[in-house]
Design a protein that fits this description.
Blueprint lengths: L18 H7 L2 H4 L3 H17 L5 H20 L11 H13 L1 H5 L6 H37 L4 E6 L2 E7 H26 L1 E2 L15 H7 L4 E2 L3 H6 L2 H27 L7 E2 L18 H24 L14 H22 L3 E2 L1 H9 L5 H10 L4 H18 L8 H5 L15 H6 L9 H12 L2
Parallel strand pairs: 3-4
Antiparallel strand pairs: 1-2, 5-6
């Protein structure tokens, strides 16, 4: 009986928990990282209980002092966790009660582990969103810096991995800046739905005690209260949304890595990744492998798996709280750790990348990349686009057969395909002319790119 009473919830039980069950149901190995959020929430709860005269001021002081001492011991690695404590909440509450006696038993008044863990998860997720946003901003700053540095460098643009049209390297870099900017916006938007205070929902129906939820919300900097106690304890859509945003962010990182991997091959030769961010082969001495980029690409699938895992946990849960929700933490923690480390290493790698600008310029000039410019030249002369498209297509076929480029052709050659050509065609044949013609908002001309950089810096 004495052993059974060690469980804070064990009043109605007549048998000890089987050791197999204790090991299987314990979440302490992974949820202990929530300790500071659990303590932060408990301190706010204790202050509210004292304010409402549900506990005495002296008890409030003892609880807060005890919790702060426990927090310090955990941070210093001196706190001893016991598997029998099940989770971080029980570990802290048990230790508190052992230290300060009866006052510790009063801390759980007017709350349940159900709303307590929901609070901890929201506090943790809120903090991690702030951290991920800061890492995204550092990556965006690195991208903007490289875009400014490489302004004027021309590279091939691709569709279907086939050379399409020439673009500025800065334009390519800023394309990823735009993606990560949207990721930052999504994180900020998700933050609004995380930033809701669930404490006071208790197990599922609220409490009959005279608590002050707004007071707790103020202490914990929540602008809103959860409006339905059943919803507050049973849903984790705020975690699922965060994992979705992280999945999109990793998708953008993965796409960037894919370009870098391809561009660093001998076949392309546009990018040189620093030795410090590559590895060698165990058997082939000449190899230089883009392992960092490849691992980020692979870890994207891992984060997708975290999202799918959580959605699968949630999809069949009856109202309200179910122990299944214990399994929400590992996908969240794993995704946060994976994304944060990927952002840090990718940003560092980006700053050490060299672009082989001559090779890029040469690649941009090949593959008849100014074909669309010739078609648009004909459009300006009144030729319907579909007709101009066909004309230029036949010119391309002629050049392939004769092993010529557009710049090898004479006016007489062009006139064979359409009698409206004049010397103006020679103003649209070069890569530089093609790039600089695209001055519209969103275009790749240096004028447009400089304008966008100025807008970004003015934000």
């Amino acid at each position: 009986m004495a052993d059974r009473q060690k469980k804070l919830w064990g009043g109605r039980f007549h048998q000890q928990t089987d050791l197999l069950v204790e090991g299987f149901t314990s979440s302490l190995d992974f949820d202990r990282r929530l300790y500071k959020y659990d303590i932060e929430g408990s301190i706010a709860h204790a202050r509210m209980l004292a304010k409402q005269k549900i506990i005495k001021k002296v008890e409030e002081r003892a609880i807060i002092a005890g919790l702060k001492a426990i927090e310090a011991e955990i941070e210093e690695g001196k706190f001893v966790f016991s598997p029998g404590d099940e989770d971080i909440h029980m570990a802290i509450e048990k230790a508190l009660t052992e230290r300060i006696g009866e006052a510790g038993r009063k801390l759980h008044t007017a709350r349940s582990r159900n709303d307590q863990i929901s609070l901890d998860m929201r506090l943790y997720t809120r903090a991690e969103i702030d951290r991920i946003i800061e890492l995204v901003r550092k990556l965006k700053a690195a991208l903007l810096g490289r875009a400014k540095k490489e302004l004027g460098v021309v590279m091939p643009g691709y569709t279907h991995l086939q050379k399409a049209q020439p673009v500025l390297l800065s334009h390519w870099l800023l394309a990823f800046w735009e993606m990560f900017d949207r990721d930052e916006q999504r994180l900020e938007d998700a933050y609004k739905r995380v930033n809701v205070m669930p404490l006071g929902a208790a197990a599922l129906a609220g409490t009959g005690l005279p608590i002050d939820r707004w007071y707790v919300a103020g202490l914990l900097h929540f602008p809103r209260l959860a409006e339905n106690s059943m919803d507050a304890v049973s849903d984790r859509d705020f975690v699922a949304e965060f994992l979705f945003v992280l999945s999109v962010l990793m998708m953008h990182l993965s796409r960037f890595c894919e370009d870098l991997i391809i561009f660093s091959t001998d076949e392309f030769g546009y990018v040189e990744i620093a030795d410090s961010f590559t590895t060698g082969s165990s058997i082939m001495p000449q190899k230089k492998n883009p392992d960092v980029a490849e691992l980020i690409r692979a870890k994207t699938g891992r984060v997708y798996g975290d999202l799918l895992s959580l959605l699968t946990i949630l999809k069949g849960l009856p109202m309200t709280y179910n122990r299944d929700l214990q399994e929400d933490k590992e996908p969240l923690f794993d995704a946060v750790d994976t994304v944060a480390s990927s952002l840090v290493v990718f940003t560092a790698m980006l700053e050490k990348i060299s672009f082989k600008t001559e090779r890029m310029a040469s690649g941009a000039a090949s593959g008849f990349s100014t074909a669309t410019d010739i078609a648009e030249y004909l459009v300006r002369k009144g030729v319907p686009f579909r007709e101009s498209h066909g004309i230029v297509g036949r010119i391309v076929a002629f050049c392939i057969k004769e092993k010529k480029s557009f710049t090898d052709l004479t006016l007489e050659d062009f006139l064979k395909f359409y009698n409206g050509f004049d010397d103006g065609v020679f103003q649209v044949l070069t890569v530089e002319q093609s790039v600089q013609a695209r001055t519209q908002i969103g275009g790749t001309a240096e004028e447009a790119v400089r304008r966008r950089i100025k807008e970004i810096e003015g934000r």
